[in-house]
Amino acid sequence: MKTDHFYINLTADEQNQVLESLIKLKNRLTAQGKYTDAVDDVILKISKAKRKRFQIRYI
After folding, report:
1. Contact 23/44 with Cβ under 8 angstroms?
2. Are 18 and 42 in contact (CB under 8 A)?
3. Residue 51 to residues 5, 10, 29, 38, 44: CA-CA distances in angstroms?
4. What does R_g of the chain's alpha carbons equal in angstroms?
5. Model-level pTM greater than 0.90?
6. What pLDDT digit, counting tens, does each position of 11-41 carry?
7. Contacts from 13-21 at CB under 8 Å and sequence distance 24+?
8. Helix axes 37-47, 12-32, angle to 10 degrees
9. Cα(56)–Cα(58) distance, rounded to whole angstroms?
């Protein structure tokens, strides 16, 4: 079975904002007594993501 890969380009500030919002979501789910496994996985993936420099060319 083929797995799809998705890429997103974020600046350092955008990455921090995404992490902050995910942590807030995790706190809300914890307060409601719900599972946070999926949010934990996404937080780990975003925090461990490598930063790669690239150049955009306009043709």
Report:
1. no
2. no
3. 16, 9, 29, 23, 14
4. 15
5. no
6. 889 999 999 999 999 999 999 999 999 999 9
7. 15/46, 15/49, 18/46, 19/43, 19/46, 19/47
8. 160
9. 7
Has residue 49 got a pLDDT over 80? yes
Q: Is the pLDDT of residue 59 over 80?
A: no
Q: What's the per-residue H, E or C state across 1-59?
A: CCCCCCCCCCCHHHHHHHHHHHHHHHHHHHHHCCCCHHHHHHHHHHHCCCCCCCCCCCC
* pLDDT band at residue 2 under the 50/70/90 scheme: confident
- Separation between Cα atoms, residue 19 and residue 11, nearest integer Å: 12
Distance CA 3, CA 36 (A): 23
